[in-house]
Specification:
- The longest helix is centred in the first third of the chain and has 21 residues, at 25-45.
- Helix 3 links the parallel strand 2 and strand 3.
- The chain has helices at residues 2-11, 25-45, 66-73, 84-96, 210-219, 234-244, 257-270; strands at 13-14, 49-51, 77-79, 104-113, 120-124, 139-142, 154-157, 164-173, 178-188, 202-206, 225-229, 247-251.
- With 272 residues, it is of the alpha+beta class.
- It is globular and about 60 Å long.
- The chain has one domain (2-270): L-fucose Isomerase, Chain A, domain 3 (Alpha-Beta Barrel).
- It is built from 7 helices and 12 strands.
- It has a 6-stranded antiparallel beta barrel. Strands 1-6-7 form a 3-stranded mixed β-sheet. The chain has a two-stranded parallel ribbon with strand order 2-3.
């Protein structure tokens, strides 16, 4: 545990309260213990991905934050709230992206920037976004979490890279088949201070635009959780879906809602 805490101190900008002698030093120790325990469990079982839930954490002092972030950085798939499908997708996309510049990370639409001239999406999660996306050295911080009924969790806080092509992908179970839904996006630079959002943050503009992309996502039954990718193309995911025998749908620069609805109707017949 001591060695891992020293690794934290060498790798991240540490909040003063988490340093030796600080008021929250014990919380950092608990976070390190959780990381070591989770990693041992995953290695012992030869597991490649995992999930948790903030309502069932018997024996854990805090919701795993930095532990999950660092395990994803090592290549494990993860998604919150028992979402095994997205955990598997994150692992698959991390495997596909090996050796390529950029990263793949568990994600969700956190809130929307409804600026009429430049609407965009702020992506995040309450704790668990992979630091492989960080544009600068992450900050290791501790803040309250209003759900779960546990102690304040330690997490890595950072902004992601901007001005690159990216995408979000979601995997849904429709009973008789799986659907892989892909939305091409453009990552944007985060220029504002976000003191009231002390978590990892990603900003992007969906193609063809926020409102068309949102409508198409809803029509396709798009999931709450996604895998955000900086290095995998929509074509790669379409190839993956074909190899896996699952449906794929792409929302991109050319998407028109009328045509998208027709594709959904045709696919519904095909996958009966």
């Amino acid at each position: 545990i001591k060695t891992l805490m020293e690794e934290y101190e060498a790798s991240y900008k540490m909040a003063e309260s988490l340093l030796s002698g600080g008021s929250n030093r014990k919380s950092l120790e608990a976070a390190a213990r959780i990381e070591l325990g989770l990693e041992k469990f995953l290695k012992d079982g030869n597991f490649k991905g995992f999930s948790d839930t903030f309502e069932d954490l018997h024996g854990l002092e805090q919701l795993p934050g930095i532990a999950v972030q660092r395990l994803m950085e090592k290549g494990y798939g993860f998604a919150g709230e028992g979402d095994w499908k997205t955990a598997a997708l994150v692992r698959a996309m991390k495997t596909m992206g090996q050796g390529l510049e950029g990263g793949n990370a568990f994600m969700e639409d956190y809130t929307y920037h409804l600026n009429p001239s430049n609407p965009s999406v702020l992506g995040s999660h309450m704790l668990e976004v992979d630091p492989v996306l960080a544009v600068d050295k992450p900050s290791c911080e501790i803040h309250p979490l209003g759900i779960g009924g546990k102690a304040d969790p330690v997490r890595l806080v950072f902004n992601s890279r901007g001005n690159i092509d990216s995408l979000n992908a979601a995997l849904m179970d429709f009973g008789n088949h799986f659907r892989l839904l892909i939305n091409k996006t453009k990552a944007l630079e985060i220029t504002e201070k976000l003191p009231k959002l002390p978590v990892a943050r990603v900003l992007w503009k969906p193609h063809p635009d926020l409102f068309t992309a949102a409508e198409a996502w809803i029509l396709a039954g798009g999931a709450h959780h996604t895998c955000y990718s900086e290095n995998i193309s929509a074509e790669m995911l379409e190839d993956f879906a074909e190899m896996a025998g699952i449906e794929s749908l792409v929302i991109d620069e050319d998407t028109k809602i009328r045509d998208f609805k027709n594709t959904l109707r045709w696919n519904e017949i095909y996958y009966r």
